[in-house]
Amino acid sequence: MSLFHVLSVSASGMAAQRVRAELLAENLANAETTRTLEGGPYRRKDAVFQVAEVYSPFADLFVQQLGSPWLGVEVSEVRIDDREPELRYLPGHPDARPDGYVAFPRINPAEDMVDLMGASRGYQANVVAMSAIKDMIQRSFDLLR
Fold first, then answer.
1. pLDDT tens digit string along 107-136?
2. Residues 23-63: pLDDT tens digits?
3. Would you state the torsion angle of the CA atoms of residues 78, 81, 82, 84, taken in this order, to the nearest 10 degrees?
4. Could you tell me the CA-to-CA distances from 88 to 30, 101, 107, 122 in Å, in that order?
5. Which sequence spans correspond to the domains of the chain?
Protein backbone atom coordinates (compact mmCIF):
# COMPACT_ATOMS: atom_id res chain seq x y z
CA MET A 1 0.00 0.00 0.00
CA SER A 2 1.36 3.38 -0.98
CA LEU A 3 1.31 6.18 1.54
CA PHE A 4 0.55 8.56 -1.29
CA HIS A 5 -2.56 6.56 -2.11
CA VAL A 6 -3.74 6.77 1.49
CA LEU A 7 -3.44 10.55 1.11
CA SER A 8 -5.83 10.30 -1.85
CA VAL A 9 -8.32 8.29 0.20
CA SER A 10 -8.24 10.87 3.01
CA ALA A 11 -8.56 13.69 0.48
CA SER A 12 -11.72 12.08 -0.93
CA GLY A 13 -13.16 11.88 2.58
CA MET A 14 -12.33 15.54 3.22
CA ALA A 15 -13.99 16.60 -0.03
CA ALA A 16 -17.15 14.63 0.77
CA GLN A 17 -17.37 16.02 4.32
CA ARG A 18 -16.85 19.56 2.97
CA VAL A 19 -19.85 19.17 0.65
CA ARG A 20 -21.91 17.76 3.53
CA ALA A 21 -20.93 20.67 5.79
CA GLU A 22 -21.80 23.22 3.07
CA LEU A 23 -25.26 21.70 2.64
CA LEU A 24 -25.87 21.64 6.39
CA ALA A 25 -24.80 25.28 6.69
CA GLU A 26 -27.16 26.15 3.81
CA ASN A 27 -29.99 24.32 5.59
CA LEU A 28 -29.34 26.23 8.82
CA ALA A 29 -29.13 29.56 7.00
CA ASN A 30 -32.48 28.93 5.31
CA ALA A 31 -34.36 27.41 8.25
CA GLU A 32 -36.87 30.30 8.20
CA THR A 33 -36.95 30.98 4.43
CA THR A 34 -40.55 30.96 3.29
CA ARG A 35 -40.07 32.14 -0.29
CA THR A 36 -37.55 30.91 -2.88
CA LEU A 37 -37.08 31.52 -6.60
CA GLU A 38 -38.64 28.10 -7.28
CA GLY A 39 -41.69 29.12 -5.26
CA GLY A 40 -42.63 28.00 -1.80
CA PRO A 41 -40.37 27.50 1.20
CA TYR A 42 -36.74 26.36 1.10
CA ARG A 43 -36.30 22.59 0.79
CA ARG A 44 -33.78 20.79 3.02
CA LYS A 45 -30.78 19.27 1.19
CA ASP A 46 -28.80 16.20 2.25
CA ALA A 47 -25.61 14.69 0.83
CA VAL A 48 -25.60 10.99 -0.03
CA PHE A 49 -22.20 9.30 0.14
CA GLN A 50 -21.08 6.31 -1.89
CA VAL A 51 -17.92 4.29 -2.33
CA ALA A 52 -15.85 5.47 -5.27
CA GLU A 53 -12.51 4.75 -6.86
CA VAL A 54 -9.84 7.19 -5.80
CA TYR A 55 -7.60 8.76 -8.38
CA SER A 56 -3.91 8.12 -7.95
CA PRO A 57 -1.11 8.70 -10.48
CA PHE A 58 -0.18 5.03 -10.09
CA ALA A 59 -3.74 3.67 -10.07
CA ASP A 60 -3.18 1.33 -13.04
CA LEU A 61 -0.15 -0.20 -11.36
CA PHE A 62 -2.09 -0.74 -8.11
CA VAL A 63 -4.91 -2.46 -9.96
CA GLN A 64 -2.44 -4.75 -11.76
CA GLN A 65 -0.56 -5.66 -8.59
CA LEU A 66 -3.44 -5.95 -6.15
CA GLY A 67 -6.30 -6.90 -8.44
CA SER A 68 -8.71 -4.25 -7.19
CA PRO A 69 -8.90 -0.47 -7.31
CA TRP A 70 -8.42 1.71 -4.23
CA LEU A 71 -11.66 2.96 -2.82
CA GLY A 72 -12.60 6.22 -1.15
CA VAL A 73 -15.83 8.16 -0.82
CA GLU A 74 -17.72 10.72 -2.89
CA VAL A 75 -21.04 12.52 -2.81
CA SER A 76 -23.23 10.58 -5.23
CA GLU A 77 -26.21 12.93 -5.07
CA VAL A 78 -27.80 15.76 -3.18
CA ARG A 79 -31.28 14.80 -2.05
CA ILE A 80 -33.90 17.49 -1.70
CA ASP A 81 -36.58 16.94 0.95
CA ASP A 82 -39.92 16.47 -0.79
CA ARG A 83 -42.08 16.31 2.35
CA GLU A 84 -44.87 18.80 2.85
CA PRO A 85 -43.66 22.02 4.52
CA GLU A 86 -44.43 22.81 8.14
CA LEU A 87 -47.42 25.13 8.48
CA ARG A 88 -47.48 27.85 11.13
CA TYR A 89 -50.38 30.17 11.83
CA LEU A 90 -49.04 33.71 11.21
CA PRO A 91 -51.82 35.74 9.60
CA GLY A 92 -49.76 38.95 9.41
CA HIS A 93 -46.82 37.34 7.55
CA PRO A 94 -46.31 38.53 3.93
CA ASP A 95 -46.28 34.91 2.69
CA ALA A 96 -49.40 33.86 4.61
CA ARG A 97 -52.03 31.91 2.73
CA PRO A 98 -55.63 33.15 2.79
CA ASP A 99 -56.27 30.91 5.81
CA GLY A 100 -53.38 32.62 7.70
CA TYR A 101 -50.91 29.73 7.57
CA VAL A 102 -47.33 30.14 6.34
CA ALA A 103 -45.29 27.26 4.87
CA PHE A 104 -41.86 26.91 6.53
CA PRO A 105 -39.04 24.47 5.68
CA ARG A 106 -38.91 21.18 7.59
CA ILE A 107 -35.56 21.89 9.23
CA ASN A 108 -34.62 21.05 12.80
CA PRO A 109 -31.68 23.34 13.67
CA ALA A 110 -30.58 21.14 16.59
CA GLU A 111 -30.42 18.07 14.34
CA ASP A 112 -28.50 19.95 11.66
CA MET A 113 -26.03 21.31 14.24
CA VAL A 114 -25.33 17.76 15.45
CA ASP A 115 -24.87 16.63 11.84
CA LEU A 116 -22.56 19.59 11.23
CA MET A 117 -20.45 18.59 14.24
CA GLY A 118 -20.25 15.06 12.80
CA ALA A 119 -19.13 16.41 9.43
CA SER A 120 -16.52 18.57 11.15
CA ARG A 121 -15.20 15.61 13.13
CA GLY A 122 -15.07 13.46 10.00
CA TYR A 123 -13.10 16.17 8.24
CA GLN A 124 -10.74 16.53 11.23
CA ALA A 125 -10.18 12.76 11.34
CA ASN A 126 -9.03 12.85 7.72
CA VAL A 127 -6.74 15.79 8.48
CA VAL A 128 -5.17 13.82 11.35
CA ALA A 129 -4.69 10.79 9.08
CA MET A 130 -3.05 12.97 6.43
CA SER A 131 -0.74 14.53 9.03
CA ALA A 132 0.32 11.07 10.23
CA ILE A 133 1.02 9.98 6.67
CA LYS A 134 2.98 13.15 5.99
CA ASP A 135 5.10 12.43 9.06
CA MET A 136 5.72 8.86 7.86
CA ILE A 137 6.80 10.09 4.45
CA GLN A 138 9.10 12.67 6.04
CA ARG A 139 10.68 10.01 8.27
CA SER A 140 11.22 7.80 5.21
CA PHE A 141 13.06 10.63 3.51
CA ASP A 142 15.14 11.19 6.64
CA LEU A 143 16.13 7.51 6.71
CA LEU A 144 17.24 7.64 3.08
CA ARG A 145 19.60 10.58 3.68
1. 999 999 999 999 999 999 999 999 999 998
2. 999 999 999 999 999 889 999 999 999 998 876 665 566 56
3. -170
4. 16, 5, 13, 35
5. 3-144
